[in-house]
# Entry
Amino acid sequence: MKPGTRALGIAESYRGAESTLAGCVVRADSVVDGFAFGSCTVGGTDATDAVLDLFSRLEREDVQFLLTAGIAPAWFNILNLHRLHDATGLPVLSVSFEASEGLEAGIDDAFTGEARDRRMATYRAQPPRHPVAVGDNRLFVRGVGFTDDREVEVVRAFTREGGRPEPVRVARLAARGADELRRLSHPPGSENNEE
# Structure
C-alpha cells in the first residue's frame, strides 16, 4: 500500500450521557493528517449519523478507507456499516480487539420493546466478524465495500505496534483527551452556576 494512502479512524470516549467521538485521518506511513470531533448519545441510536456528520465536516476527498473502533460505541449505539459505506462511498471496517460471542445477549439484557428490536435489527444486518492475524496479535474485523482479501491488507497496512490500527488508536487517544477537556470545562453542577 502506498505510504500516502489515508484512512479515517473513528473512536469514542464517554462519561455520562454523551459520548465524545474523534475522527483521525492517518496515512499508511503513520503520519497523522487531520482531526474532527463530534458526539453521540450514550445508549442512543444516533452514532451512525454522528459519524457521517464528522466525516462531512472533515471535507477530505483524499480519505480512502473508514475504520471504526468496534461496532457499538456509547453503550449499544450500534453503527450501521452498510449505511456508512453507502453515504461516504468508502470501504468501511469495524475493528475490535477481543474474541466475543457477539452483542445479541447484551442488547437483549439492556433493552426491551422497540428499543431492543431496532438495535437488534441493525446489529444482525451487519457482516459477520472474522479474525485477522497482525504480527502476534489477532484482531476481529467486519468489512463493507471490500473486494477479495483487501480488508486484511488494509488492517495490516495501518497497524504498526500494539495490535491496533493507527487511525483508531490515535482517534481513541484524541477522544479521551477531548472528553477530559469537556469534563474539566463543565464540572458536575456547573451548568446551574450564574454570575
About this structure: The helical segments are 47-58, 73-76, 81-88, 104-110, 113-124, 150-158, 166-185.
